[in-house]
Amino acid sequence: xxxxxxxxxxxxxxxxxxxxxxNPAATLPYWDYTIDAASGRPIYESPVMxxxxxxxxxxxxxxxxxxxxxxxxxxxAAIPDGRWAQLRAExxxxxxxxPDGADSFVRAPWNLNPSPYVSRFTSKLSQTAxxxxxxxxxxxxxxxxxxFLRDVEAKGYGGVPQVLGGVYGCDQxxxxxxxxxxxxxxxxxxxCATWETYLKELYRLxxxxxxxxxxxxxxxxxxxxxxxxxxxxxxxxxxxxxKYAPAATLYERAARLLAADADNEGLLPVLLGxxxxxxxxxxxxxxxxxxxxxRSLARLPQEKVEVxxxxxxxxxxxxxxxxxxxxxxxALALAPPEGKEVLTQRILxxxxxxxxxxxHYRLTGQWAERAAGRGNWKTPVQxxxxxxxxxxxxxxxxxxxxxxxxxxxxxxVRSRGYAFLEIPTLLNRAVVAQGHGDYHMAVGLIREAQAxxxxxxxxxxxxxxxxxxxxxxxxxxxxxxxxxxxRAALGIVETHRLAASERVRALxxxxxxLTVLGRVVEAQTALEETVRLSR
Length: 535
What we know:
Layout: H1 4-22, H2 33-39, H3 93-96, H4 133-140, H5 145-154, H6 160-165, H7 174-178, H8 185-193, H9 195-204, H10 223-240, H11 244-260, H12 264-280, H13 284-297, H14 301-317, H15 321-334, H16 340-358, H17 361-372, H18 380-395, H19 399-416, H20 422-435, H21 439-456, H22 459-475, H23 479-496, H24 500-516, H25 520-534
Helix pairs in contact: 10-11, 11-12, 12-13, 12-14, 13-14, 14-15, 14-16, 15-16, 16-17, 16-18, 17-18, 18-19, 18-20, 19-20, 20-21, 20-22, 21-22, 22-23, 22-24, 23-24, 24-25
């Protein structure tokens, strides 16, 4: 687009300045790719792509098709030699344990490459795409600014990313030939050669959703053919669908493969993904055990920060409040300046959760409101803040504000695909409906959340639904039915070993139900147990 030229100049200048801040003698190299275009040689034979300069480009089994699922491990696309050999992609452990299961490396959101290495998927699919002198002359001969800004990207630069980065897995398009969507092998290769361009535009238009469009079925899931990183990709897609149990299993299998290869750098983001899934399954002790493994693997400040924050959230669920707060304070002290704003918002949300569990609802609202004052709700963390604020408003009876916030959050959840927030947001809306006396709507919303929780094997969500059904039943003068729901909620706590705070809530509900039913002795026993646990 019109920003292409200015943006590339700016990014290049920033990178050049960064290099010279480390070593004033360093500067960006210049690659005149018109020389390669004129020579007619494939890019993998260019002197630029050699061990002496930027490292060679590994050959796939069939260079005409490039790297394929059937024949080539995705990790083989790493740089094999020279000073950049086995160069790893920039890690992003915050993304690894993020709710939407984002990839763990600094790549575009439509880039599905799960390899931990900087990758070059060599092939002959795009070898004619490097712009030559004639293309540049044509750009310079344009007579309008609009044509120049369009052509400098399309003709003067277009094709370079495809040739350098390439595409993995063109064999996935072959079935489309048999179904008539692509008419020939040449068509299939032509589509695949520029697939990342199509994928980028489809993603930006919201026409593809990697978690919900059947992508998981395309990926192998046996250890031998998939390897660790394709298992991780599939796990993240399942995580985005809130299918935490199968995702956790895949993360565990990938972690075993990485541990066997002594790939500790790659192991950390995989374990953090596993922690997120186990946490959402209510398996607090298991998730804490995995976090302890992460401690020894975290080397960079941002990695240590992420482990501390995640561990703190688990400690809250285990009622270890002081340890949780200490973790968050250490994380803020360690955090690099560029990541502190987002980190602060996350910790404000987690503090809100802590006070909610403790029953300090005014403080819950204050922390949630502080979190809500940051950001514009377009990221998962910001959406979590919006949901926390909605929940806090409902807890203090401000149903009007809670309803507005919950509706806004649900719109965001469904438009952005934040499946992990759909269940709590539906339950927030149910609280609002209940507060307004609209029990019919409340029941419908709880049932919707309950169905989603069952599909995702989300024990926490299932517990919340049962507990709320119990409260609704008692409000509607059906204490017997309320007791059934609250006992079911307690059974979920015991079966899935949920937090002590959830046991307290379930026992409180049971005690109140028994009181209404006139079963005073049993009620007293349940409520005394509630007091003991609370203290």
